């Protein structure tokens, strides 16, 4: 049985990792590996940003006691500036990747995200599929 968990972030990303502790309206959430699972099978990430940020790449870091092999760093979506003739624009992209990251049920972990620019105004979501 697959179990899906999401975390969201709205605001400025930087080159330092930001811990995702929200899930839409819920905030200050911890993340415990669900009971009855042994690994993360897929990771999805979506990002939107206004055109003023420019082009940048994102990264996803999974860490905590729930990861039996330690911290996992993965690439996230890359965004490219999409400006209309009026000068306005929004870049948006999502990715999904199959993984096999061993986890320990009941232990804590965190999802962190970062960007290759020092100030990226974004809305982001990461979804983990446990099985």
Helix and strand run: EEEEEEEE
Q: Which CATH class applies here?
A: Mainly Beta
For the sheet with most strands, the description reads: 4 strands, antiparallel
Briefly note the structural class of the backbone: mainly beta
- Architecture, according to CATH? Sandwich
- What's the overall average pLDDT, rounded? 89
Helix content: under 10%
Number of strands: 8
Distance between the termini: 6 Å
For the biggest β-sheet, the strand order reads 1-8-3-6
Radius of gyration: 15 Å
Please state the overall shape, judged from the principal axes of the Cα atoms: elongated
Count, helices: 0
Tally of individual domains:
1
The percent range for strand residues is over 45%
CATH topology: Jelly Rolls
Assembly category = single chain
Given as residue ranges, the uncertain stretches (5+ residues, pLDDT < 50) are none
Provide an overview of this structure:
This protein has a single domain (3-81, 88-130), classed as Jelly Rolls (Sandwich). Helix content is 0%, strand content 54%. It has strands at 3-13, 18-19, 39-50, 56-63, 72-79, 90-102, 110-115, 120-130. A hairpin with an 8-residue loop joins strand 4 (56-63) and strand 5 (72-79). The termini are close together.
């Amino acid at each position: 049985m697959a179990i899906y968990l999401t975390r969201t972030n709205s605001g400025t990303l930087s080159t330092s990792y930001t811990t995702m502790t929200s899930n839409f309206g819920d905030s200050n959430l911890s993340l415990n590996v669900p009971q009855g699972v042994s690994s993360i099978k897929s990771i999805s990430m979506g990002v939107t940003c206004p055109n003023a940020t420019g082009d940048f790449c994102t990264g996803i870091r999974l860490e905590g006691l729930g990861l039996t092999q330690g911290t996992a760093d993965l690439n996230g979506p890359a965004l490219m500036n999409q400006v209309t003739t009026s000068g306005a624009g929004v870049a948006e992209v999502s990715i999904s990747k199959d993984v096999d990251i061993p986890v320990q049920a009941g232990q804590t972990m965190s999802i962190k995200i970062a960007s290759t620019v020092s100030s990226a105004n974004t809305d982001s979501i990461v979804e983990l599929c446990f099985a």
